[in-house]
Amino acid sequence: MNLHALLAARATPVRVGLIGAGKFGSMFLAQVPGIANLEVAAIADLDPDRARAAVRAVGWDEARVAATRFVDSGAALIGMDGVEVVVEATGSPAAGIAHARAAIAAGKHIVMVNVEADVLAGPLLAAEARAAGVVYSMAYGDQPALVAELVDWARASGFRVVAAGKGTKYLPAYHEVTPDDVWSHYGLTPEAARAAGMNPQMFNSFLDGTKSAIEMAAIANACGLDVPSAGLAFPPCGVDDLPHVLRPRAAGGSLERAGIAEVVSCLERDGRPVFRDLRWGVYVVFEAPTDYAASCFAQYGLKTDASGQYAAMYKPYHLIGLELSISVLSAALRGEPTGQSREFRADVVSVAKRDLRQGEMLDGEGGYTVWGRAMPAADSLRAGALPIGLAHRVALRRGVARGAVLTWDDVAAMDGPAVQARREMERVFTPAR
Fold first, then answer.
1. What pLDDT digit, counting tens, does each position of 342-363 carry?
2. Strands, E assignment, 142-194
3. Is 236 helix (H, G, I), strand (E, B) or coil?
4. Do both 293 and 280 map to the same domain?
């Protein structure tokens, strides 16, 4: 609660290097001029001219643009003197793992906006950072870090966490949506989306359930929670009903048991809007440890289930990159992450969107071939399931039926640093079976 004071008292600015000047990165860059003693020393993007255009578009003056280095290589940025905190915002799992390891080796803190990389190998990267004496952190402003904060608050207050997660727009049919028809579900024309610079595959990953699965797996791995054994259920639920719906089935709710990361939908299954939905927010449901605590819930107006034992706290919005400086400053000034994967409890596996043929090339998150389903890590390893983060630009060795979980044996042999990091993470953090 004193990051601003700590930053003001610091003798030298906190200097940041940003890798990836897309939407998340641009939102962070928009805030930097208003934060005294925080500087972006360098920005790496595959297209440096696009990055220069981005900083001008968010309001940077020419003096600030001229004082910033623009490069086309994340590795080059990490190697620069004076960069203290590296923000990885590329969205590529392979690039994210490579950049994180390079930053850790260089003795620099890493803020991992790239949740895809975190779910693929985050516990391993976090352990390597701790061993090197630097911080590996989730990105504040994105849902996993905000949920981790709520979970930490609940536990530090003495409550048992029953469920935690976020809201989204979901219907079962969305799992098979492709980039060709994604915009109709957002109420946009393809032309309007193109004019706004919106990437159809990226936005489709938000819709088809993949991004939700990735974020819940990250939350589970950071908070010691689990994902549902049958995958996310996306129950329709508004904020007033959180403690009623997200309690164990034994208590009348929808969860198989307590301690689950789950997403709630802002749509009823027939498409009607949910009353007081949580589409843009995050939540935690917790249980009163005593009857006295439950009576205090009632006395102070907390929304509970009918028993009064289960209650919820929520944050109705998240501002993604506009809040990212919280992670940067926490790492640099406190040496603390704003959420960090520590266990391999949950995975995100690849599921066929349609009947796939031998020889077809998988196109990864948000594409035409597969969507990502959350799965307990022990189940994923037992099945030999193919992680969604590796289901990109790899050919099928055999056909796979619509709705089936793909396995490592279904695809051509893969190797490379990302695959090796994933396999190492599995060996080191193998969950109990």
1. 999 999 999 999 999 999 999 9
2. 160-168
3. strand
4. yes
pLDDT band, residue 195 (cuts 50/70/90): confident
- Cα separation, 251 vs 101, in Å, equals 45
Residues 328 and 351 in one domain: no
Is pLDDT at 289 greater than 90 in this prediction? yes
- 301: exposed, middle or buried (C-beta count within 10 Å: 0-12, 13-18, 19+)? exposed
Residue type, 413: A
The CATH number covering residue 133 comes to: 3.40.50.720
Residue 430 to residues 137, 222, 433: CA-CA distances in angstroms?
22, 15, 9
Kindly give the pairing relationship between strand 38-44 and strand 14-19: parallel
Do residue 280 and residue 383 come from a single domain? no
Separation in Å, CA 11 to CA 38, 111, 140, 141, 408: 12, 23, 25, 27, 52
Indicate if 131 and 226 belong to the same structural domain.
no
- 12 and 114 both lie in a single domain: yes
Q: Locate 163 and state its tokens.
A: 């469920």
Domain count, the chain: 3
